[in-house]
Amino acid sequence: NKTYDGSAAGLGVSYSATPDGSLLLGTVTNTLDDKNAGTRTARVGGLHSSQQGYDILYVDGTVEVEKAVLTVTGTTAADKVYDGMTTAAITAGTLSGFVGSETVGIATVNGDFDDKNAGTRSATAHYTLADGTNGGLAGNYSLADTTGHAAAITPKALSITGTTAADKVYDGTTTAAITAGTLTGFVGSETVSIATVNGDFDDKNAGTRSATAQYTLADGTNGGLAGNYSLADTSGHTAAIIPKALTVTGTTAADKVY
Question: For residues 128 and 203, is the Cβ–Cβ distance under 8 A?
Fold first, then answer.
């Protein structure tokens, strides 16, 4: 067997002396019926016996021409937003290892991350080859999967509607009591919940104020992971800081003449 090298020449033939001990003279030839990768017929000839009266009859052999292995460098995987799948978008690099001046191209390249969840991930790239424009045939070459292409899966941004801030009596702080609204934007049937929600008014003093809400998320009950989602602060939640009622003691009124 041989690896594709662009030639129909065989790699050689093993043979032994004839049963009567006569010598085999000449130069053995070994030619394949096709130079391309695959199972090929090898036609052997070129020898004759030193003993007159003998002819050598040849039986064709079989040779497996194996694909030449290519190397690819510079393949990259793209960052993506969490979508519940391991699918990775791959940009193929540069091929090398061709026979002579031949080239082939990359017809398709696909990839898979090692984990579907948000974080820094490693992608594996899978390639299919296409015939080149100068005689190179894809069937004569192979390109193994490549691994270790680092990229990030970033959390998917959720939306929330209906968040409210509660009125409060002036207490010298900007702390606001927030009631969270309804989350939307999940992947498929996943859900997560709001673990905590806090808020701050834009001013500590009494009056009509605008509150900003800050959220933290918790894992859902049906497989949704908080780490795969993000929820930005929301602002513009209007509420009132009411003046604080004071108490007075020791007030007196003075007597007076009518």
Answer: no
**Would you call 46 helix, strand, or coil by DSSP?**
strand
Please enumerate, as own/partner, the contacts of 193-196 that have beta carbons within 8 Å and a separation of 24 or more: 193/217, 193/218, 193/219, 193/220, 194/218, 194/231, 195/226
Q: How far apart are CA 103 and CA 163, in angstroms?
A: 61
Compute φ and ψ for 178, nearest 5 degrees. -115, 140
- Tokens found for residue 185: 């934007």
148-182 pLDDT, tens per residue?
999 999 999 999 999 999 999 999 999 999 999 99
Q: For residues 248 and 251, give the distance between their C-alpha atoms in angstroms, rounded to a whole number.
A: 7
How are beta strands 159-161 and 164-165 bridged, if at all? unpaired
Judging by DSSP bridges, how do beta strands 38-49 and 24-32 pair with one another? antiparallel
